[in-house]
Amino acid sequence: SPRPTCCSKDKLSRRRIPEFRIREYRYSASSCALRAVLVKLDHGMVCVDPQQKWFQEYLRKQKKPKTPST
Description:
Oligomer: single chain
GO cellular component, one term: extracellular space
Pfam family, one: IL8
Number of helices: 1
Helix content: 10-25%
Strand order of the largest sheet: 1-2-3
Number of domains: 1
GO molecular function, one term: chemokine activity
CATH class: Mainly Beta
Shape: elongated
Mean pLDDT: 89
Keywords: Cytokine
Largest sheet: 3 strands, antiparallel
CATH architecture: Beta Barrel
Strand content: 15-25%
Protein name: CCL26 protein
């Protein structure tokens, strides 16, 4: 069965997740009571508050085009 894509407030991770551990992320379904981001790690999923400062910074970095390192 598909996993529910909702996060409850007590499931939200308070800790900053190291960027190198984030495999992918997606926003919770619009039908969810709580607006959250599901972050996929090597060993499972973590719920994150999209308003958290570290996540905002992470998103900003993701949007920047990656320049080839010389």
